[in-house]
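hiii so um. not sure if this is the right channel but i have a protein structure encoded as C-alpha cells and i wanna go backwards to a sequence. like what aa goes where. can anyone help
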C-alpha cells in the first residue's frame, strides 16, 4: 500500500503520521511518501522521516501522485481535490455537517472519503478521543485563567476557596461528551463548583455515580451536580455561572443551538462562555463567528466569548503522536493489497467511516443534519 502524508494548511499544526509510526508502516511493507516539512510544526523534521524509511517530495500534488491512501487532517483544498482520483482513499477530519462546501466538492468529484470523526468501534470514537481530551482540559484551564485580572476583562474571582473566603467559581458544562468529562475532571481538580447538564438518562446516571469525579469533588470540597435536563433549564443556571462550557456529544453532527441572547444578557459581567464544539457549528445566538489563535475571544453583553476553532492544534506534538499511534497500529499497518475497495470491504470499521463514495453521501449523521439523501455504503459496494 502506498500512503501519502500531505503538508497541512495554515493553522493546522498537527500531522497524521509521526516518524516512529512511518517506520512501523515501512516494516509492514507499505510505502510512505511525505511532503517536505509536513511534520515541522509538530516538532518532526524531514530527516526523521527519511531515517524512518519515507520518501520526501516537494509538494502535495506530487505526494498525491499514484498513492492509494492520502492523509491530511485539515480540509483538502480545491486544487488538492482535483489531483485526487476516485480510486484513491482520502482520510481527513472533515466535520462535513459544518462544511457543506467541502461536502459538495467531494460529491461532485466522486471522491472516496473517510472521516476521522466517523471511525468508531463499539460506540467508541478512538481517533476523536485524544483531540477531545485536549479540548476539555484546555477549556477548563482557559475558563479559570480568564476569571483573573491577568486576563482582559477578568472579574478577579478565584476558581477555588481561600482562607476566610469560601466563595469559589461556578462552572457549568453542557453535554457529558468526551470533552465535557475531561473538562469536569480538570474543574473539580482545581476545586471549583460544577454543574453538568445532560439530557441522556443513561449518561446522567453514569456521571452522577462516577467514582473519579465524586472523589475529586470530595477532596477539593467542591459542589458537584449532574442535572438530567431539557436545555430550557439552562436559563435558570446561567445567571449564577461564571464559566459556561459547551461541548458536543455526537462526533460529526451539527452543534445544537442552546445558548440564547437572553441567557447571555442574564450572565454576570466578566463571565466567560467557551464553545468547545465550534468546529461543528455555533451553539448560541451571540456566537457570530469562530475565533482564531491570534484573536481568541470577543465580548458581547459583557460576556467574554471563546469560539476557538481547532484547539487540539495548539498542542500538535502530543496530539500527533496519539493520532498517529492509533491510526497506524489499529488500522493502517494491517491493510493489504492495492485495491482500495477491497481493503474497505475487508475492514467493517473503516467501511462504516466512509462519508462519501462515488458521488453519494454515505454518512447518516451528516445527511440528517443537512437534510440530504443518504446511501448505505454496504449496498453501494455490492
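sure thing!! here u go:
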Amino acid at each position: 500500500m502506498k500512503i501519502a502524508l500531505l503538508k497541512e494548511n495554515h493553522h493546522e499544526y498537527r500531522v497524521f503520521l509521526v516518524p516512529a509510526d512511518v517506520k512501523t508502516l515501512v516494516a509492514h511493507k507499505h510505502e510512505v511518501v511525505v511532503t517536505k516539512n509536513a511534520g515541522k510544526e509538530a516538532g518532526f523534521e524531514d530527516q526523521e522521516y527519511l531515517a524512518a524509511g519515507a520518501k520526501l517530495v516537494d509538494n502535495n500534488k506530487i505526494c498525491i501522485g499514484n498513492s492509494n491512501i492520502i492523509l491530511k487532517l485539515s480540509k483538502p483544498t480545491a486544487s488538492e481535490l482535483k489531483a485526487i482520483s476516485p480510486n484513491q482513499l482520502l482520510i481527513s477530519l472533515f466535520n462535513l455537517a459544518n462544511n457543506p462546501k467541502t461536502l459538495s466538492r467531494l460529491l461532485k468529484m466522486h471522491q472516496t472519503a473517510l472521516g476521522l470523526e466517523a471511525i468508531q468501534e463499539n460506540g467508541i470514537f478512538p481517533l476523536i478521543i485524544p483531540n477531545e481530551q485536549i479540548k476539555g482540559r484546555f477549556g477548563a484551564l482557559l475558563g479559570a485563567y480568564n476569571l483573573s485580572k491577568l486576563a482582559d476583562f477578568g472579574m478577579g474571582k478565584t476558581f477555588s476557596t481561600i482562607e476566610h473566603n469560601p466563595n469559589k467559581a461556578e462552572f457549568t458544562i453542557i453535554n457529558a461528551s468526551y470533552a465535557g468529562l475531561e473538562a469536569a475532571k480538570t474543574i473539580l481538580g482545581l476545586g471549583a463548583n460544577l454543574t453538568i447538564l445532560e439530557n441522556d438518562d443513561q449518561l446522567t446516571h453514569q456521571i452522577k455515580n462516577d467514582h473519579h469525579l465524586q472523589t475529586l469533588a470530595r477532596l477539593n470540597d467542591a459542589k458537584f451536580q449532574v442535572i438530567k435536563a431539557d436545555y430550557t433549564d439552562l436559563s435558570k443556571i446561567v445567571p449564577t455561572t461564571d464559566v459556561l462550557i459547551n461541548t458536543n456529544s455526537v462526533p460529526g453532527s451539527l452543534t445544537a443551538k442552546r445558548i440564547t441572547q437572553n441567557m447571555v444578557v442574564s450572565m454576570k459581567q466578566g463571565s466567560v462562555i467557551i464553545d468547545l464544539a465550534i468546529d461543528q457549528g455555533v451553539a448560541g445566538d451571540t456566537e457570530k463567528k469562530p475565533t482564531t489563535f491570534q484573536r481568541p475571544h470577543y465580548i458581547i453583553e459583557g460576556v467574554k466569548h471563546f469560539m476557538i476553532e481547532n484547539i487540539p492544534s495548539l498542542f500538535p506534538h502530543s496530539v500527533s503522536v496519539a493520532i498517529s499511534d492509533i491510526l497506524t497500529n489499529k488500522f493502517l499497518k494491517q491493510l493489504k493489497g492495492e485495491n482500495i475497495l477491497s481493503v474497505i470491504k475487508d475492514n467493517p470499521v473503516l467501511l462504516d467511516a466512509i462519508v462519501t463514495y462515488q458521488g453519494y453521501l454515505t454518512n447518516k449523521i451528516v445527511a440528517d443534519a443537512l437534510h440530504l439523501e443518504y446511501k448505505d455504503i454496504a449496498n453501494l459496494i455490492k
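oh and The chain has 16 helices and 15 strands.
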